[in-house]
Design a protein that fits this description.
With 536 residues, the chain is an alpha/beta fold. It has 20 helices and eleven strands.
Length: 536
């Protein structure tokens, strides 16, 4: 929706000035959807970010924010709203240990202010001491978007220039193209042996018309994600939009499948699933407390579960309990004891034997697993990784990810490279950037009088997003001031847009000056922008 006056655009009035001064990254107030489809190559927006927590297991970043030293302003303002397993990265930062950051860019058009968020996240992690990687996903662009190599070369150069202009240090980090990185391609080949078409079909909705190169580009991206760990395992974070989460889930699965050993907890010689393990654990704990001086046996736990099961248990829980009882009965008088289990996934015979030797204390060796009774899980994980690496394995840690909100387009709706008025390219003439902000939709009221009386809707305003995501920089006080003046009715849209337009013009001027400086030094970098691939 565009402005109808110089001061404020139309919308339905509400009288609510008691709002959170942070961006509502949880999607509160947005139209909820029963299901959220995450398509890495699609164009759908996420209507309700809270659904991602429920449906896909993405965790709220607010909960981990206190653990992050010197958090980036995108984290503080809730623009980075979610994560998968970011704690190892935050801990590495706090402890001064090795960690890495990597993200890639599919060169389908000019870099714009939406891409700037990812550039900033890479640069910030590098500044915190991380090994930083920026890659051009040219194989993906060619396979999934059918871009010509000429087009890819042109845009790849532009993405790298903006990343450098925003602070990426190429001497301390690595820039590469998928098509030129043989190690990535070789790793992708190995990872491809751990995935199959049915899995890719379920994750990405591939069908009989999906070409093989598109599928191959997926395992290449998996290799990109794990590439920082090729020399040694280290916590690695991938900053992405939530639409890329399918890639992260698959990468974490493949990282685990490549491991020599899987470490779990167990209570008996037989293997159970996590739900059955929880049921057996509860029986063991109860019986151990009741009879602290007696050995708890599998048949004792079976009787306990049969006679004292929860009458309100769901059918699913009842089925899982029945299966646990059956296995416990079959084990009979075998003692039920907590232990840490090493399951053989891909280990060589030499690695399996070495692990047996490396485990101190009481242990039991079976054909496909080893049970250790004097080793906690954390120590067991470390030992398994050491043995794996010593015997030629990768020892991958599961990669972490952080997720940022999509920027709203200046015209409302999604910011899209195919709609020039909806976004500001980092290559736009500064005056054009000024004009686009001046023409942007806002969250203002019908009239200046209503704006002063009811306050503006900063939570729904693309112009306020510009302040929060970019124009305020690291100055939280300024971002909060703009927000409070807007919702308090002191700030009118005309003046607000004028200020934002001037700041945008200044940003583009400075950014393009830095791009020009790097343009002169680009040939010194170890990355080729002139592909020698056939122009098929």
């Amino acid at each position: 929706m565009t402005d109808t006056t110089d001061d404020d655009p139309p919308d339905e009035p509400t009288d609510d000035r008691t709002r959170d001064t942070r961006l509502r990254a949880d999607g509160a107030g947005a139209a909820g959807a029963d299901d959220v489809a995450l398509d890495p190559w699609g164009s759908a927006t996420v209507e309700d970010y809270r659904k991602l927590f429920e449906q896909f297991g993405i965790e709220s970043f607010d909960e981990i924010l206190p653990e992050v030293p010197n958090p980036h302003y995108l984290m503080r303002r809730g623009v980075i709203f979610g994560h998968r397993d970011y704690r190892p990265v935050a801990e590495a930062m706090r402890e001064g240990e090795d960690f890495a950051v990597l993200s890639g860019f599919m060169p389908t058009g000019d870099p714009h202010i939406g891409h700037k968020m990812v550039f900033d996240e890479i640069v910030w992690h590098q500044q915190q001491g991380g090994d930083a990687y920026g890659l051009i996903a040219d194989l993906e662009a060619h396979a999934a978007r059918e871009l010509s190599w000429e087009t890819i070369d042109e845009h790849a150069r532009s993405y790298i220039l903006s990343l450098l202009a925003l602070g990426f240090d190429p001497e301390e980090g690595e820039l590469y193209r998928q098509s030129d990185n043989r190690e990535v391609q070789d790793l992708g080949f190995e990872l491809g042996a751990k995935a199959n078409f049915s899995e890719l079909q379920a994750i990405y909705d591939f069908d009989g018309e999906t070409d093989v190169s598109h599928m191959q580009s997926v395992v290449t991206q998996m290799a990109d994600i794990l590439y920082p760990q090729l020399e040694e395992p280290k916590p690695t974070v991938i900053p992405v939009g939530p639409d890329q989460d399918p890639h992260m889930r698959l990468a974490r699965d493949l990282a685990a499948r490549m491991r020599y050993f899987k470490v779990t907890e167990a209570f008996a010689s037989f293997e159970v699933d996590p739900d059955q393990r929880s049921i057996i654990a509860e029986a063991y704990e109860t019986l151990s407390q009741r009879h602290p001086d007696e050995t708890v046996r599998c048949e004792d736990a079976a009787r306990y579960l049969e006679n004292e099961r929860d009458p309100d248990a769901t059918d699913l829980n009842a089925t899982r309990t029945d299966s646990a009882i059956m296995m416990l009965k079959e084990a009979g008088k075998e003692p039920l004891r907590p232990r840490t289990r090493f399951l053989d996934r891909n280990a060589t015979d030499e690695a399996f034997e070495a692990l047996i030797e490396a485990i101190d204390g009481e242990k039991r060796v079976y054909e496909a697993h080893i049970d250790a009774f004097d080793l906690d899980r954390e120590a067991a994980e470390e030992l398994a990784r050491e043995v794996e690496i010593d015997h030629g394995g990768y020892g991958f840690l599961a990669p972490s990810s952080i997720y940022h909100r999509f920027m709203t387009g200046l015209t409302g709706g999604k910011m899209s490279s195919s709609i020039p008025a909806s976004h500001i390219s980092l290559l736009d003439d500064p005056e054009e950037g000024y004009d686009k902000v001046k023409a942007a939709t806002t969250g203002g009221r019908e009239t200046a009088e209503e704006q002063r009386e009811l306050g503006g809707r900063a939570d729904e305003c693309p112009v306020y997003e510009l302040y929060a995501y970019l124009l305020s920089g690291d100055d939280d006080e300024f971002a909060t001031e703009v927000y409070e003046e807007c919702v308090g009715g002191e700030r009118l849209c005309g003046g607000c847009k004028e200020q934002a337009a001037e700041l945008m013009e200044e940003f583009l001027e400075e950014h393009q000056e830095k791009r020009a400086e790097w343009e002169e030094k680009l040939d010194e970098l170890d990355i080729d922008f002139d592909s020698d691939r056939k122009r098929a």
